[in-house]
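Here is one chain, start to finish.
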Amino acid sequence: MDTILIRNVRFLSDAEPKLRCLLIRNGQIESVHNDEESFVIKADTVIDGDGQILIPGMIDVHIHGAEGFDMMDGTIQSVEAVSRACARTGCTSFLATSVSSTLDDLLKMIKNVKEVAGKEPGAQLIGLHIEGPYLNVKRKGMQNERYLRHPDLDEMKSIIETSGSLLKMVTLAPELPGGLEMIRFLKEKGIIAAIAHSDATYEEAKLAFQSGASHVTHCFNGMRPIHHRDPGVVIAAFEESSVSVQAIVDDVHLHPAIVRLIYREKGPDKMVLITDALQAMGMGDGTYLFGGHEVKVSHGVAKLSDGTLASSTVTMNEALEKAVKSGIPLKDAVIMATQTPADILGMSNKGRIEPGADADLVLMNDQFEVLWTIVNGKIVYNRT
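Its structure:
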């Protein structure tokens, strides 16, 4: 049996600072110990963590691309490149996320994702997040208007037929004709129905949650804003204890005060850190093609020519750092990037450091730099 002992690491879950070690066997965490026990534990490989912080692998439920590659490029190479990029930033699992497109282009993207799933070079591809095309033109953001359309059950059935069990989340505007019917259908299939790019009123959002929607994509962005006489989707979501929300914490999409507000209202078990990254992540400033639009990235901020924000360039480890700088305790910020997305996806084997969990682990220093990343007990990134 292949065993790995990771020793001399710190856990954020410990109330008092102490060094820990853990034993990995065949890709899973077998046991966790105090570090002084590491000298009597036998293992095939021993890794010294040099006293740095060990956290569960982060999970990004919303990422479009990275390092010059877009999941909608229509190539297997693009999906593999995003997997590698995720691993370098401490993300061990992700949902490949689409943008609004023709059905043919979407199905091609899904088929390429299926080809890579199970053979990833870096982070594990745990599913698909279909963002659009059932979105409201009024709140389209960077989504390409020419592809937006009303919810279509026959079309969704063909998407599910192609994607199979990989389809985990669909973002839509529930106020559109057929929206509630689509939500009920997705719930029956065990697929998360999420709300965004929506002009839904408070009442329409409440009805959507009653119908089975359980998640809000990039909260506050791409939806009716809060007004004291028209509270909209956000307040409706805040009132529903079972509803979880995504947050793009990049110092652009959300003011730090709003980040703290979401945290106070939803708590770490219902607030999910995401990147919503496009292919400019890890590439720097420049001009990119995304969703059929020309996107210009300047000082790390991606915008269309009219000034509309067009996704993000933030990485998961950067989002973690910015969440902490916004005022969220590090322990809770880590939960929001690891355990919470795992729980939302129904994956109790991920997002935690405990016996029986998958050995998806990230070693980082106090500056939030990723030193190495392990996926299913295998080192997929090593900074040295």
